[in-house]
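Milestone M4 deliverable, item 7.
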Amino acid sequence: MKNITMMKKAQQGFTLIELMIVVAIIGILAAVALPAYQTYTKKATFSEVVLATTTQKTAVEICGQTVATDAASFTSQCIGGKNGVINAAASGVVKSVAVTGVTDGEIIITATGDKGEIGTTDDLTVIMTGTLTNGQIIWVKTGTCVAKGIC
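Output delivered:
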């Protein structure tokens, strides 16, 4: 009976070293999780800027399919407010969306982020370059958001 009483008394709680180990493990997990969470919130916020380009992309694609007969007419007829392709005004974390033509057969849609709630989209851009190839528009994404890894 004496041995049972001593065993119960020895197993009543955690030692200080055990508690310190648990706190250290939690600290390490938090140090790893916090940067991943911050990147996730930046991507989520910037997705609104990327999404803002879809209206212009759709308008450019419809114009390319219905109006453009060659690369030169694609670039001249599918920008500057012609055939339903317009620039977009600011909204939410989107500062602007501009549609321009640089060379024959190529249209560039540039969306710029504005300061969001956590300031992650400030002046970052996503650039969608559409090229008319065999009657289809092929899109390539570039911009400062690609370099930052958030789009």
